[in-house]
Amino acid sequence: MTQVPAFTDRVETPRLMDCPNWVYLLREIDSLYRFWSDGGSIPIRSHRKRVRDRLSATIAKNPHLIDRTASQKHVTAHFSRALDLGERAAMQGMARALREVKDSLTWEYGYEKVSKSLGQKYAYCEILGPRGPVQCDTLILGFVLFAPNTTYPQHSHQDIEESYVSISGAWSENNTAVYAHGSLIFNRPGDEHRITTGDRDPCLLAYA
């Protein structure tokens, strides 16, 4: 008797290059850290190089994508407006690339407990990191969204350096300046910082 071969329903986990919209978004971030100015700052120049080197290595590996459940928060009601503002100015490529994946983003708070007022005005989403959706163990990339007239409390990260790049909206860190689209702000490990946003429009920042 002829034996019938067995078939399985196993579905191959998609890789980065199977999902062009994620690739285009990562390339927009790469451009920010590759071609925009460091303002003559050696620490910022070094940070930008670390980000783009790790990002380039990740893209070259074509990693598997982690299936994360998309989720919304109260503040994401402002997301479309933030993207509209971004598409009007120098960050239009980034805003358009982000719009293409907006239905796949997992917005969260990052805290077990968050005050009611902050919970209505803030959330972030990761796009690359150990938890995905683009898997990477050497770098975390994402976006943080603030509603108008938000104060994010003073905080620091003891073992983490980070940078924020303005995609849209106006904001200030530690009351030292007002930043608009295209600005890059660098925080060394342990730097205390407090964020406030303008009262008319939401603020969208990329972070690394």
Give the helix/strand layout.
Elements: H1 20-35, H2 42-61, H3 79-86, H4 92-100, H5 116-119, E1 122-129, E2 134-135, E3 141-146, E4 151-155, E5 162-168, E6 171-173, E7 184-187, E8 193-197, E9 203-207
Parallel strand pairs: 1-2
Antiparallel strand pairs: 1-3, 3-9, 4-8, 5-7, 5-9, 6-8
Helix pairs in contact: 1-2, 1-4, 3-4
Keywords: Methyltransferase, Transferase
InterPro entries: DMSP_lyase, RmlC-like_jellyroll, RmlC_Cupin_sf
Protein name: Dimethylpropiothetin dethiomethylase
Describe this structure in words.
The chain has helices spanning 20-35, 42-61, 79-86, 92-100, 116-119, and strands at residues 122-129, 134-135, 141-146, 151-155, 162-168, 171-173, 184-187, 193-197, 203-207. It is of the alpha+beta class and 208 residues long. It has a single domain (16-207), classed as Jelly Rolls (Sandwich). It has a six-stranded mixed sheet. The longest helix is centred in the N-terminal third of the chain and has 20 residues, at 42-61. The termini are far apart. The mean pLDDT is 90.
The ordered H/E elements are HHHHHEEEEEEEEE
Approximately how much beta-strand content do the residues carry?
Answer: 15-25%
Largest sheet: 6 strands, mixed
Structural class: alpha+beta
Overall mean pLDDT stands at 90
Helical fraction equals 25-40%
